[in-house]
Design brief:
Order of helices and strands: HHHEHHEHEHHEHEHEEHHHEHEHHHEHEE
Radius of gyration: 31 Å
Largest sheet: 2 strands, antiparallel
Helix content: 25-40%
Strand content: 5-15%
Structural class: mainly alpha
Number of helices: 18
Distance between the termini: 69 Å
Amino acid sequence: MWSNPRVRRRYVSAGFAFAAALAVGPAAAAAPADVTAKFHLKPGAHGVLCMDCHVDFQEVVKRPHVHTPVKAGRCAECHDPHASNHGKLLADAPDKICATCHGTMIPDGAKSTHEAVAQGKCVVCHDPHGSANKANLVRPGNELCLGCHEDVKKDLAAATHKHTPASSNCLGCHDPHASKEAKSLLVKTPPALCVGCHNPAQPGFAKAHLGYPVARANCISCHDPHGSPNKGILWASVHAPVQNKMCAQCHGEPPASGPIKVKKTAPELCRGCHNALFVDINSKNRVHWPVVDGLACANCHEPHAAKTAKLLTASQKQLCGGCHPDAVARQEKSLTKHPPNADGQCSTCHAPHSSDQTFLFRESSEIEVCGTCHDWKNHSAHPLGEKAVDKRNPNLRLDCESCHRTHGTAFKSFAHYDTKGDLCTQCHIQYTR
């Protein structure tokens, strides 16, 4: 078979289907070795042989931006022309091939890394052969980023007050690979990033901030960098004193320099406006510990503005899960999902500040808590309540959690045991097989 030059040519050329090296890269790396001798290629063969079969690549090389190895016809730098353990006859894992020329795209000590880069999925963003876009990007500019970051795309579309850089160029603020400087792939940490465009010395800037020296403040504690329904691109949920430009309600007069101090520390500062809430909290016999520790309200709430309702520092699922990871993890593994938990609506069942009930339940009993969503009286003929004694422990009465675990289990209907028999025989042992 190999005596036939045409057949041999086809086998040699089989590797041109896919190249996985990036088009650009900041890290220096040694140039790949010449593969002519390695594969015993004819002088000058390289991509010439490949093109005999892969005629569609004639169009690829006409694109405005062509990957250097492809342009030079060096297909065998990325592909093995004979056989491979990797798809597309790649000579190695895609990320390793890219790193041969481009080195690592993640600097030492990086504070944030793009997930695609960390996973070595260069071709998610880059076409390894050629593209109509700079850097061999598979799609232009923001269109590429928003293809994955759909939540940001949705927010940008809904924003009535736009932030121009976010609408025009994600890379104005973000590094697409990794950032050594900041979280969220930001090229710099605010306010250093923000003052590159917004000059704090401008009179209009000082007037908008009521004379407070905010040049060293964290801009995103008040402003949504992608756009907002509020003027000044303030976050969607704004603390009333900020919304009404009443900074002096919590802060002293603007200092000439130095930090902007608050008049009192939490919770006393918050009590000035929210006294009725504090009275209600303290009237209960169980208080959520974040309310009474040193940070108090600031454990869960932002003082100026936030993306989430009630000025929460994060979604309920993230916020509550920070202290109660077991509850979140259990629901994620649960065979049946419980909507309040799965949707991150912890406050549907639990009071976030205080309660007279165990587990900070909102209602007087577990049965009543469940009854806010479930018509338990029609759910089952099984007795529940104070007159129904739990046979496993005569000190307990039967309620919903006697059979179900609200945060989830490995069984259907988040039951403690298999509902086809094992659950019932925990009490009705006479029916055990």
